[in-house]
Amino acid sequence: MAGEDTTVRRRGRRPGGQDTRTALIEAARAVFGESGFDGATVRVIATRAGVDAAMVNHWFGSKEGLFAQAVLKLPFDPHELLAELRDGPDEEFGRRIVRTFLTRWDGAGGDVFQALVRSVAGHEQAALVLRSFFQNFFTKVIAGLGSDRVELRTSLCASQLVGMGLVRYVAKFEPMASSEIDPLVTAIAPTVQRYLTGDID
């Protein structure tokens, strides 16, 4: 009995409850961020979480299922976000988008965005979800503003925000990586606003 208790403590196993699920999600975000989808293993994630590897299948069905829950789940509800962004003048839409993007991803610690982007290159599911989110989101935004050339404007807006996220959360270029949000909004929002409603010829 004593030997069994030591093993349990050494492995840091948790009861098979909600705390186990939360621990796996947090560990998966860290490991996917460090290693990408292909480099991350169920065993390493489970060890980081302090649980048995079987808990991954129990809670998520597979590494793919864990990835979908831990990484592809955005730190906001797109529908609620769209309603929030629409609350204000159209000519300030770019400012609201940039500020909200930075605030939400900063609030998530940047880890979710970092893990998602690092996994895109090696896993089509991540790339598909990233494309789908930006396409659906900006198509609704731009259509609501009455702008033309929706597909091109969507791609331009996505390139600006993804690029901003890469520099701030992944490559961590200074001073942008540690900058306060307000200066970044002032610098970047006019470009996003032009992509939304301005002349792109």
* Second-tier CATH architecture of the largest domain: Orthogonal Bundle
CATH domain fold name of the largest domain: Tetracycline Repressor, domain 2
Total separate domains:
2
Q: How many DSSP helices?
A: 11
Q: Could you give the count of β-strands?
A: 0
Class from helix and strand fractions: mainly alpha
Shape: elongated
Helical content band? over 70%
CATH class assignment of the largest domain: Mainly Alpha
Name of the CATH superfamily of the largest domain: Tetracycline Repressor, domain 2
Task: Provide the gyration radius in Å.
Answer: 20 Å
- Strand coverage percent: under 5%
Distance between the termini: 75 Å
Q: What is the N-to-C succession of helices and strands?
A: HHHHHHHHHHH
Mean pLDDT across residues: 83
Name the poorly predicted regions.
1-15
Largest sheet: none
Question: Keywords for this structure?
Answer:
201 residues, mainly alpha, Arc Repressor Mutant, subunit A, Tetracycline Repressor, domain 2, 74% helix
